Amino acid sequence: MKIELGDNRYGKAENRVVRITREQSNHHILDLNVSVQLSGDFDDTHLNGSNAKVLPTDTQKNTVFAFAQKYPAMEPEAFGLILCEHFLDTQSHVTRAEVRLEQFLWDRIQVDGKPHPRAFQRNSTLTRTARVVMDRTANGSNESFVSSGVQDLVILKTSDSEFTGFIKDHYTTLPEATDRIMATQVSAKWRHDSHDAQTLKKKDFAKSYKLATQKMLATFAEHHSLSLQQTLFEMAKEMITEQPDLCAVQMSLPNKHHFLVDLSPFGQENTNEVFIAADRPYGLIEAVVNRDDAPDAGFIWPAW
Amino acid sequence: MKIELGDNRYGKAENRVVRITREQSNHHILDLNVSVQLSGDFDDTHLNGSNAKVLPTDTQKNTVFAFAQKYPAMEPEAFGLILCEHFLDTQSHVTRAEVRLEQFLWDRIQVDGKPHPRAFQRNSTLTRTARVVMDRTANGSNESFVSSGVQDLVILKTSDSEFTGFIKDHYTTLPEATDRIMATQVSAKWRHDSHDAQTLKKKDFAKSYKLATQKMLATFAEHHSLSLQQTLFEMAKEMITEQPDLCAVQMSLPNKHHFLVDLSPFGQENTNEVFIAADRPYGLIEAVVNRDDAPDAGFIWPAW
Amino acid sequence: MKIELGDNRYGKAENRVVRITREQSNHHILDLNVSVQLSGDFDDTHLNGSNAKVLPTDTQKNTVFAFAQKYPAMEPEAFGLILCEHFLDTQSHVTRAEVRLEQFLWDRIQVDGKPHPRAFQRNSTLTRTARVVMDRTANGSNESFVSSGVQDLVILKTSDSEFTGFIKDHYTTLPEATDRIMATQVSAKWRHDSHDAQTLKKKDFAKSYKLATQKMLATFAEHHSLSLQQTLFEMAKEMITEQPDLCAVQMSLPNKHHFLVDLSPFGQENTNEVFIAADRPYGLIEAVVNRDDAPDAGFIWPAW
Amino acid sequence: MKIELGDNRYGKAENRVVRITREQSNHHILDLNVSVQLSGDFDDTHLNGSNAKVLPTDTQKNTVFAFAQKYPAMEPEAFGLILCEHFLDTQSHVTRAEVRLEQFLWDRIQVDGKPHPRAFQRNSTLTRTARVVMDRTANGSNESFVSSGVQDLVILKTSDSEFTGFIKDHYTTLPEATDRIMATQVSAKWRHDSHDAQTLKKKDFAKSYKLATQKMLATFAEHHSLSLQQTLFEMAKEMITEQPDLCAVQMSLPNKHHFLVDLSPFGQENTNEVFIAADRPYGLIEAVVNRDDAPDAGFIWPAW
């Protein structure tokens, strides 16, 4: 029996970099949580403890902060591309660089109805995310994969949601529902179909992100839902239809159950008004929706 | 040696009640986390295990949900007052009822620039809070204490913050700072000066809350800060000055440190641009600011 | 109307200090989370922004780490006493120093049945806590208050717990239970009755802590419970009876509900075997139990 | 352009089932968090909203609780196998069932040095995990994949850890370390090499789990580490060598940095005694180690 090293990667996770850009008296914040992972020829450190090919995670951290100063005001996807390029360019034994980014959003504080130029409140309604994977190919060039996304976005609709016609078996107790609350906490990612770093760097990720999230939310609001699965598919389909270069969307949607409270023991009728918001367990709906001709995902997304 | 029961209270905590109000096709959400605590003559259950005077926490929970149906569309402070009154009115051996409320906020989803009447996204920028304490007095009437507040509100300013002139001792290494990032996560509560339930129930808590938070944020934005302590006092002072019936403000402000990253080893100058957001440790500034003639706080606020 | 500064304090919170003591090849870990708060004459910084009397929280942090090197292998209570003394001794305008400590416990890793001298696994079964408050008195001497405690300790018993004979009202649906699961997550603190720093420093806090927690757990296990309130009182009473210098015990006990699952729709009988562990809401039982002649608590414990 | 449904699955997550087994007066607890996911022919619900093939997640929840009563005292791996079999046997359009389990451990409370038969304290030192994936194959039989694991296990060694000889580049500031603290929070999974459900059900998972975790811990303790990567490989290799049917081990090891505190500004020398435990960022080392002839992993483990 021989024991060998399989898939492996390492890096510095959760570098909390805050980049202030000062445009005269008007300031801007870029607030990121950046995680780097490198893969390649790392047998020596695992098997023998030789670190001759190991770029320390501390150095990766320094690089993230140094680059945040060199390259201000970037979209997270673009910052990830530049970091991945750096690690592949300078570390010949690294064959894949991955950067995951969380962007925390800030709104300007309103003073007398006007946005203040240098004071902010954090907008925790959602976290914007991005992920970049860059692979060194056999011919020495790089192949890039970029996805964008959101997480921590909680949405709810008070009408246009039903769940009927499902399988009944020995363990069924759930009644059919023709008018229920639907609520979920969206984790969504969408892939950009180009795999060329130069093309990707020119993309207007800010605009694409704005369109994608608006379309996702509007579809959720306006769609008459027969199941959370159907709503997931509809949101993703509309996002791709509007921006076909978002060639695939992956969503993970916990069904945040709101149970109607039985008030009949107290002589009260609960006409779909009072609910208890439950914590656990929860339904969990996960799917990928894609253009039938979408290019390969590479390693940008984990299989579940 | 005799061992006796001291201060005690009990109740059902974290009742997650969601109340939908349907105004024709336009729906409203009231999303609360309600905790009830009762104090009074409970020696028997502690000392002897007799529950003859115990209103079970399960019954308290039922009451919260039943009242949420009976009394729709209330401000959290008003809902707390009604619950406290109920427990004092119906449980003669209860001498104090306390209700703490967290309100989770929801914005309407925008569809083509218009707010949707029945679809929402949670606004996690802050959590609105309220606290009601109602005491049965010697003459049999009730004395009510109400505070309102916010928590989880993260704010940051990129200018007008310095920290100089402090004590230097054997353990000092901190340099003086004339231009630093100031960031904090606000937990604030403010007391309403009336102790009369009927007066309090008529108060426009929604308007008061809006004014208080706007003033707090505007003061943070516009104030030139010489210390976080000074900023705390200034915010509280302005809130009370604008609404003197908010007779006292208590704030707990962690100093969320953003440290300037030293880029000189890499030949780069960091001109107040790139920061690392630190988790722990953090400074913690806590104070009460009040009108000199503010009535007693009673048990509405814990001493630290 | 005059607006004034009320109660206030400030300090550095959550200093994560790990102290390794090397006794030849046998090593020991002291793993603490230390929070310092100072009160006194701090009007100037709040009202005018003058920091002439402010010992920066950064300096407090440095002091914590420096003292951890100077004073190895201390019990958390003793470490808190030394820190409080330092701040009162060196800062004449400080009138109260408070130190809260969390101690994370580590067990030695077992290798072939023997404890390893230099390798550890964290024991997260509970967190040991301590709290020290030191007040400068009118005559210039100090008055010290020390409490010890535990938190994050989850305990459960599968027998000897009932809940019957409680009040029934319009909102009651809970059936009586003669054999239920009782589970709680203990937060407990107990006060030492001496207020003299020199006496307290000589106390064997390690032994006292061990006795107190063993007695608490054994009482929980052996007690036949008629309510969680009764169990709380019984545990505290036994702790004080065994060690009367623990003159008062404060406990906060969430009732972690385990609901019997109704399996009758599936033709199965659930004879007290299968439960769902619920998250929210939960009952919450809080009380102080004390010797009738216990000295004043001072500011060691917040009122609720 | 056609838009289609890709990989998808759904189910009930985080069913918190507590199973008490009463062996006369001696009771046992099985405390699980069970998550079920089903995949198969679910195009209809996603594309058209027809739920004719949807077994509701509520029914899956009921099944978990009903089976916990029917099949007491099982190891988590075996419980997962039985659940997967049920869903594949009864739902002909389901082609894959996955069950993830977390087991929370309980120790008996010690009373006078003896374990109590019916009172417990939760042992949060680690969480035991298991994962079962069962695939319906082309010939109609099932192929099963089972992994076991641990998470939330924090370990630390105070000697025998160095990190030297690494790459230095423009962004390097880290000094070499010949004697550092090494600490990590282990998430580890190991695969059982049989894919046959009947064989797997007969396996002594309790014994295998105990051996695997003991070997992992002992190797961490005794190994002289030149890098966390080397330690990871060594732990996994020893686990497989001892139990070759654990054909592959996947580990995710955050490097929980403990930084030596510079006490020289205070005239103190820190001889590897006082450290600050940092939160973020942290190094993250991830790898699979396997027998060179290990069977395919199937979908038991996500690619990163």
Automatic annotation (TrEMBL), chains A, B, C, D:
Pathway, per record: Purine metabolism; urate degradation; (S)-allantoin from urate: step 1/3
Concerning InterPro entries, the annotation shows: Uricase
Molecular function terms from GO: urate oxidase activity
UniProt key word Oxidoreductase: yes
The cross-references to Pfam families, in alphabetical order and at most eight, read:
Uricase (PF01014)
- The residues forming the signal peptide are none
- EC nos: 1.7.3.3
Q: Which UniProt keywords apply?
A: Oxidoreductase, Purine metabolism
Gene Ontology BP annotations: purine nucleobase metabolic process; urate catabolic process
- Enzyme's top EC category: oxidoreductase
What is stated as this protein's family in its record?
Belongs to the uricase family.
Full protein name: factor independent urate hydroxylase
Lineage of origin: unclassified sequences, metagenomes, ecological metagenomes
